Amino acid sequence: MVRYIAYRSLMALFLVWVVVTIVFLLLHLIPGDPAELLLSQGSIAADPAAVAALRTKMGLNEPLWQQYLSHLAGVLTGDLGASFRDGAPVVGQIAQRLPRTLEVILTAAIIATTLGVPLGTFAAIRAGGKWDSAISLLSSAALSTPVFVVGSVVILIFAQQLRILPAGGFVAISVDPVQHLKLLMLPAGTVALGLWAVITRMSRATVLEVLQRDHVRTARAKGLSHRQILRRHVVRNALIPVLTVLGLEMGTLIGGTVLVEFVFNWPGLSGYLVSAVDARDYPEVVGIVMTISILFVFLNLLVDVVNAALDPRIALARS
Amino acid sequence: MNRALRQLIVPGTAVAIIVMLVLLAPVLPLADVRGMDIPHRFAPPSAQHWLGQDEFGRDVLARLIWGGRASLFIAIGSALAAAVIGTTLGLLGGYFRGVVEIVTVRAAEIILCLPPLLLALLVVTILGAGTRPLILALTILYTPNYARVIYAATLQVQGLDFVTAQRAMGTHPIRILWRTILPNVMPPLLVQMSLVIASAMVIESGLSFLGLGVVPPTPSWGLMIRAARSAMELAPLLLVWPSLALAGTILTFNLLCDRLQSVLDPRATTAGGALWLRNPRRRAAPTPRTTTPPDQTQAPLLEIRDLAIAVNAGRQPMDLVHNVSISVQPGETVALVGESGSGKTLTSLALTGLLPDSLSVTGGTATYMPRDGVPIDLCQLDEQGFRTLRGSEISMVFQDAAAALNPVLRIGYQVAEAIRAHRNPSDFELDTAVIELLRHVGIPDPKARARAYPHELSGGQRQRAMIAVAIANSPRLLIADEPTTALDPTIQAQILQLFRTLKDDTPEMGLIFVTHDLALVSEIADRVTVMYAGEVVEDGPVAQVFAQPRHPYTAALIASVPEGGAERLVAIPGTVPAPNAMPPGCRFAPRCAHARPECDAAPPPVIAPAPERRTRCIRWKEVT
Fold first, then answer.
1. Residue B94, CB half-sphere, CA atoms under 13 Å: how many?
2. Contact (CB<8Å) A311/B277
3. How large a percentage of chain A has pLDDT more than 70?
4. What single-letter DSSP state applies at residue B304?
5. Which residues, other chains included, contact B28 with Cβ-Cβ below 8 Å and sequence gap of 6+?
6. A196: burial class by Cβ within 10 Å (0-12, 13-18, 19+)?
7. What is the mean pLDDT of residues A279-301?
8. B613: buried, middle or exposed (CB in 10 Å: 19+, 13-18, 0-12)?
9. From A6, B233, B424, B534, which residue has the greatest number of CB atoms within 10 Å?
């Protein structure tokens, strides 16, 4: 187990290095001068003097390998540079906004799992029946509706028509906990809907598969009650792939809440990214993309370790 | 046309309609998408403008169709571009492997390290908003998906004989890839394509919604939703139309993908489920206790009479097990012998109500005498009734212990669970009982092994643990279904020895030992019941049956094993008939050396050639 975790951690570190390198290369090897690209607005050419100044500021005149090394050193020491817009360190902004994004994702994950696993299990038990079809249709519809559509429609319903929840915004939990939770409801619920669909479908598929396994028959032969069989021998075994998918989905969401944060005016990390992209603030974009990618890699690592703890065969087979 | 193909019609037609609609947009009599009409902004639906007018008074219907054109153009365009690149990478990587695989498939997979929307945003940052950067971003995004799927499919296909043959003949690799492998990986490619189109539409509309995708005034669903949001109070319908169009189109493509998958891989959709979990009280069971007065002293432990098990197939139920009668006395070991397909395992599963969902008991009785002395008919029990018997009165040892034990739970826990299902001991008592049980079945160092997972034990130890689970509550009837089949011969002998020890330790316990191995029978059983094609063909004390078989099938079985004492091994010609093609008369007649025309005339009756002996052969006297 320890060896397995060590091995997986090394893999994760390697992936982080790959990501950092890709982001670096993406911005340096594309045709055209990044400085010029950043300063030009549409077809209007940038001021050559400004471009030259920016080139020096960004260190673009140094050889590529030197730029790469200083970039790596910056990442290692947690220095992601200063924002073009206000000169403040990018790390500070990220540290402030990341928890808000994680809050939405975690709340959504909890809602989605508590609803999705039981419903998926129920659908699997009733496979081929009316309830199964209804749940399947509902989850297909939820999967097919883009998150900003769901967000806009729930605002229309809950904020505009029913007027029971605020349409968007953010209040720190230290300022007004109740209002904070009220504001959290709609974005978290919106993210949860898509996640719920994924978890429900995955739970249904794995529970169906586990139900056919021999050890479930053994559990029945022991004289266990249905609840005990379902909990210990079916859902427990089915949870392993479901958790894997949940982890992967959450990883995708760290960068994918862009739209939700935009729709609900939630000042999280993704919204920051959009405004950075809009303003073409190079250090901000690089810093955010890197943070998200690194979180993504480590979340996958966490999923692997949790899986190995739940299913002892995994550590054995893959290390 | 089969059912799965028919399911394709609805989403297929819907996709066709959507595609036709956007293709025909230039020739349809639609209003000008840019024709503003400020006085009539936010006008409700009218005869001229079916879906009303937007914030600039433009026709919503026209913008909806043209917007779909933009969305679909980007989604399908990038799906096709990514398909071409990804398929090429996947084919090359899967065919040549090695270095080629690393520079194609593995290199493409690096893209998957980045969250998709993020990558798209990054590309748009660099190249600016617009249709072409969008297509490029989405192409990069989806190339690894194709590469992966095609890579896996190529690996599968290239192992097939016809590809090997072409390679051997020296056909050029490009030709093999293009003419032979590509057509064979088309199905997963199609599934992937519909999935990517749906997914690309999600990202395209999202970016357009953020103002980073399609550039106004080109209509796009994402942009329409963005604009409608600011006018939500005035005209909520403006938000509803593009939302419906977008979600509906994506749903259609997703459905098409689902259905395609079920057509191409029918296994994935066979309805499973678990009937036993659905309705605990399926039948309002009339008290299953039989009326026979309890006769403690002489009553058999189990008396099966005319048991029948059938497939609940749609049309008429088809008998798999038929007229089976077996009795087990307390302390007696009955071996149930037969080839695969003889119905011996089904019979044993029926006794604990563990038949697969597609099968059910359709006739007969199985009177079991529990501890309390009131006989129960097992054929009338429902799931709830069986529960109290399973594990405490009747236990089972299954064939493949590796699969029959839960891989993610410790051995000790699985044994403890069996005890707790019927008793309520303290933690300490439970621990002691578990370790004592593991010791009893011959597991060395039981204290440490109790904390092991099944995969950490050897095959023989797993089977011992399985037996420990079965005997945890000292059952009165133990059913062992081929308990040694999956094991090495030396381990087989040890497990067999364990069963003998168990019998000596618990003289009252009845044992039904299901096996296809005649050699084991003489070592463990008191009586033997031979089954063939779902029927009992012969039954009697082991020594007598072996010395003088009274059914040609038994005789042939004995002659086919070295331990049978035969001078020369004789294989039985032919195979067991299929359940839907049973011979009208004796079921063994087609393979029988003694068969006569009268054997085919009618099913032979059960005859008792001697006390305690039964045979289903009219020519038993001639069998030696």
1. 26
2. no
3. 91
4. E
5. B21, B65
6. buried
7. 80
8. middle
9. B534
What integer is the mean pLDDT of A301-316? 78
Q: Which residue of B has its CA nearest to A225?
A: B387
Q: Which two tokens stand for residue B612?
A: 């305690």
Place of tokens 């044994």: B415
In whole angstroms, what is the distance from residue A183 CA to residue A179 CA? 6
Task: Select from A37, A125, A152 the Cβ nearest to the Cβ of B278.
Answer: A125
pLDDT digits (tens, 9 = 90+) for B287-303: 455 555 555 556 789 99
Backbone angles phi, psi at B376, to 5 degrees: -125, 140
Cα maximum dimension of chain B: 107
Residue A185 burial (10 A CB sphere; 0-12, 13-18, 19+): middle
What lies within 8 Å, CB to CB, of B43 at 6+ separation is B49, B52, B53, B57
Dump pLDDT digits (tens) for A154-177: 998 998 888 888 888 888 888 888
Please give the residue of chain A at the shortest CA–CA distance from B254.
A144
**Chain A neighbors of B400, CB-CB under 8 A:** 214
Supply φ then ψ for residue B541, to 5 degrees.
Answer: -60, 140
Q: Is residue B197 packed enough to be buried (19+ CB in 10 Å), middle (13-18) or exposed (0-12)?
A: buried
Strands (E), B192-350: 302-311, 318-328, 333-337
What domains, with CATH codes, occur in chain A? Answer: 2-76 (no CATH), 94-278 (1.10.3720.10)
The 10s digit of each residue's pLDDT in B391-404 is 999 999 998 888 89
At residue A259, does pLDDT exceed 70?
Answer: yes
A60-69, B214-223, B358-367, B601-610: least confident range: A60-69
Instruction: Confirm if A293 and B113 have CB atoms less than 8 A apart.
Output: yes
Contact check, Cβ <8 Å, B124/A255: no
**From CA B110, how far away is CA A25, in angstroms rounded?**
13
Tokens of B62: 């026209």
- The candidate with the shortest Cα–Cα distance to B219, out of B33, B346, B91, is B33
Which residue ranges form the domains of chain B, and what is each CATH number? 55-264 (1.10.3720.10), 302-406+474-525 (3.40.50.300)
User: Which residues on adjacent β-strands are paired with residue A44?
Assistant: A41
Taking residue B327's Cβ as centre, other Cβ atoms within 10 Å add up to: 17
Q: How far apart (Å, rounded) are the C-alpha atoms in residues B43 and B234?
A: 10
For B2, the token pair is 């089969």
Amino acid B284: pLDDT = 43
Find out whether B556 and B570 touch, Cβ atoms under 8 Å: yes
Q: Kindly tell me the sign of the dihedral angle through the C-alpha atoms of B28, B29, B35, B40.
A: negative
CA atoms within 13 A on the CB side of B362: 16
The phi and psi torsions of B531 (rounded to 5 degrees) equal -110, 145
Cis peptide bond N-terminal to B217, omega within 30: yes
Copy the structure tokens of residue B500: 């003998």
Q: How far is Cα B451 from Cα B251, in angstroms, rounded to an integer?
A: 49
φ, ψ (nearest 5 deg) of residue B44: -70, 170
Beta pairing class for B302-311 and B318-328: antiparallel
B405 with A215: Cβ contact below 8 A: yes
- B273, B387, B403: residue with CB nearest A225: B387
| CB hemisphere CA count around B421 (13 angstroms) | 33
- Chain A CB contacts of B209 below 8 Å: 146, 148, 259, 262
Query: What whole-number distance in Å separates Cα of residue B275 and Cα of residue A125?
Result: 8
**Tokens for B185?**
């990986």
Q: What token pair was written down for A224?
A: 């266990």
Cβ neighbours of B315 (radius 10 Å): 5
Q: Edge-to-edge strands of the sheet including B376-377?
A: B318-328, B302-311, B359-368, B376-377
End-to-end CA distance of chain B: 55
